[in-house]
Write a structure and sequence with these properties.
heterodimer; A: 467 residues; 15 helices; 32% helix; globular; B: Aconitase, domain 4; seven-stranded mixed β-sheet
Chain lengths: 467, 206
């Protein structure tokens, strides 16, 4: 019987197996300031060296400010955490893409950009959105700080093999729906724990149609369905994207790698534990209404009525979510007014995301009742966007143009919602308090966020004139 | 790491599904560079009325007197979803919880518990409902969680068996460090790396 892509990558990385537990070899370890200090400290206490410095790459992103990055950080605790990362990288010989370096940015934007993400590799990071790198056919997943320390010390992880799920997305990818809409629709259907215990492989016409950046958006949010990782078979688009990146293999070695990467795709007779099917014709622009990413409907939908819930459990969950979100049952989504817009995060802060938002913003004005910010995913994305004049388009329309970082996706820096403020956000989590205590988050695509900034309420991006 | 073998302790109920790690430990408390000091911030936004955490919210269930000193948390589906932050189990442990019983857990959180001497117990939703029904009306209700026998028992005599990965179980029973265990296989790692460098040389950055 054939093997799935997941099985192929898994089998190629098992160092040792015992009672269903494997020691899995890790090719790339990405490190940021929030989940690593205790791990480096653990190494020091145990007097253990870092096993493989040239497989370990660090970047500060979670709590960096997005204004005046060239000046000292005002918050002393954030400053200390970033200084600790610098010191740890220095002490252990880890490459750091520091503030002020054009390569700095959100770890899951930076690593692919630098060519650190390769098909067939295993990639871990102390961050759940490590699933992003699955867009290249890499087995990539988030780990806790104890596991960060384990990888630093051994270049391996103890893992149990996950089950495999195939999510088939048929139908063409039109300009009417975005990868964000597709992934929100998937989570809406399978639920926030629907993927628990699985690695999800995405396949089908829409996936093949999708750009590498779109595939990153899709794999990024796979964790929101509870899955360990998302995977997409590498193809010509993948190889073209990777060629000549700073850390990708060069010349003959690259060609040799491509030859091997072509064999990664799941075999035609491979068996998945579960298969779920979608068709793009059934998917419209999505907007979340609740406090987890599975609480989602489309732009023509309404806020649900807890009285019509299928069971008491759902009824209770909807009620609690609507109370937190300050929403009245049966309100049409298009009538929900917003106060803030955030375009950024490891889900949607790449150049294509910014282009899509700028196409909406061009020649328009942000509603007087809305404050909108655009936070590019990395220094390189920022430079490229400025080269294309996107910053001018945004600024002329009344958006703030910021410096790279995680920013208001998790609000560890000063970019946060005030209690009760309502935000159209291109990020990945709408949990209570995620963007600031009492803040209300609606997850949408970059196009939908930009349109909402202009009209002041959720509006169908498909009917909005773009430039 | 502290071993977990068997404990009989006060159980608290948290009747919510999808409790995410942002709720368990909000991001403003993630800036510390130590592993300690998180317990006081556990469930901060639910637990306190003010930002500085000085005014307990009387409506938050864990603030009620009956749950003072609880070491076992019984809750609903998909507990610990969201980010990979290990600060979540650190906060739960420092607050006093050594066992969490739920129908399901998020993957990364589940693993993180074992690394910190917390036992996450999966029971099916009807068994969890039974626990809720027994604990709710009985103030001071203590459960026994036995990792050796893989059982949860209640004062009324219900006994629920749970499954747990034998490997993780063994480690937790003994309080063993994962890294030390893996390093026994140091030689295999070196050998693997040597072979792998031949089969996939492009993976290695010089």
């Amino acid at each position: 019987m054939g093997k799935t892509m997941f099985e192929k990558i898994w089998d190629a990385h098992v160092v040792h197996e015992q009672d269903g537990n494997a020691i899995l070899y890790i090719d790339r370890h990405l490190v940021h300031e929030v989940t690593s200090p205790q791990a480096f400290e653990g190494l020091r206490i145990a007097e253990r060296p870092l096993r493989k410095p040239n497989a370990t790459y660090a970047v500060p992103d979670h709590n960096v400010p997005t204004i005046d990055q060239d000046k000292p950080i005002q918050d002393p605790i954030s400053a200390k955490q970033i200084e600790t990362l610098r010191q740890n990288c220095k002490d252990f010989g880890v490459t750091l893409f520091d503030l002020g370096d054009i390569r700095q940015g959100i770890v899951h934007v930076v690593a692919p950009e630098q060519g650190l993400t390769l098909p067939g590799s295993t990639i871990v990071c102390g961050d759940s959105h490590t699933s992003t790198h699955g867009a290249f056919g890499a087995l990539a997943f988030g780990i806790g700080t104890s596991e960060v320390e384990h990888v630093l010390a051994t270049q391996t992880l103890q893992q149990q093999k996950a089950k495999s799920m195939l999510v088939q997305v048929d139908g063409p990818l039109s300009d009417q729906i975005t990868p964000k809409d597709i992934v929100l629709a998937i989570i809406g259907k399978i639920g926030t724990s629907g993927g628990a215990g699985y690695v999800i492989e995405y396949a089908g016409e829409a996936i093949r149609d999708m750009s590498i950046e779109g595939r990153m958006t899709l794999c990024n949010m796979t964790i929101e369905a509870g899955a360990r990782a998302g995977l997409i078979a590498p193809d010509e688009k993948t190889f073209t994207y990777l060629r000549d990146r700073p850390y990708t293999p060069k010349g003959e070695l690259f060609e040799q790698a491509v030859g091997s990467w072509r064999l990664l795709a799941s075999d035609p007779d491979a068996k998945f534990d579960t298969v779920v099917e979608f068709n793009t014709k059934d998917i419209l622009p999505q907007v979340t209404w609740g406090t987890n990413p599975g609480m989602v409907t489309d732009i023509n939908g309404k806020v649900p009525d807890p009285e019509k819930a299928e069971n008491p459990k759902d009824q209770q969950a909807i009620k609690a979510a609507l109370e937190y979100m300050g929403l009245i049952p049966n309100t049409p989504i298009q009538e929900i007014q917003i106060d803030r817009v955030f375009i950024g995060s490891c889900t949607n802060s790449r150049i294509e995301d910014l282009r899509a938002a700028a196409a909406v913003a061009k020649g328009q004005k942000v509603s007087t009742s809305v404050n909108a910010i655009v936070v590019p995913g990395s220094g390189q994305v920022k430079e490229q966007a400025e080269g294309e004049g996107l910053d001018i388009i945004f600024k002329e329309a009344g958006f703030e143009w910021r410096e790279p970082g995680c920013s208001m996706c998790l609000a560890m820096n000063d970019d946060k919602l005030k209690p009760g403020e309502r935000c159209a956000s291109t990020s990945n989590r709408n949990f209570e308090g995620r963007q600031g205590k009492g803040g209300r988050t609606h997850l949408v695509s970059p196009e939908m966020a930009a349109v909402a900034a202009i009209t002041g309420h959720f509006t169908d991006a498909r009917s909005f004139e773009k430039h | 790491m502290q071993a977990f073998t068997k404990m009989t302790a006060l159980a608290a109920l948290l009747d919510r599904a999808d409790v995410d790690t942002d709720a368990i430990i909000p991001k403003q408390f993630l800036k510390k560079i130590e592993r300690t000091g998180f317990g006081v911030h556990l469930f901060h936004d639910w637990r306190y009325l003010d930002d500085s955490g000085t005014q307990p919210n009387p409506d938050f269930v864990l603030n009620s007197d009956r749950y003072t000193g609880a070491q076992i948390l019984v809750t609903r589906d998909n507990f610990g979803c969201g980010s990979s932050r290990e600060h979540a189990p650190w906060a739960l442990l420092e607050y006093g919880f050594r066992a969490i019983i739920a129908p399901s857990f998020a993957d990364i959180f589940y693993n993180n518990c074992f690394k910190n001497g917390i036992l996450p117990v999966r029971l099916d939703a009807t068994q969890i409902q039974r626990l809720f029904e027994e604990i709710q009306p009985n103030e001071g209700c203590q459960l026994t969680v036995d990792l050796e026998q893989q059982q949860v028992t209640t004062p009324q005599g219900h006994c629920f068996t749970f499954s747990v990965d034998p490997f993780a179980r063994e480690r937790l029973l003994q309080g063993l460090d994962d890294i030390g265990w893996t390093l026994q296989f140091k030689h295999q790692i070196v050998q693997f790396e040597g072979q792998y460098q031949n089969t996939a040389p492009w993976m290695f950055i010089q």
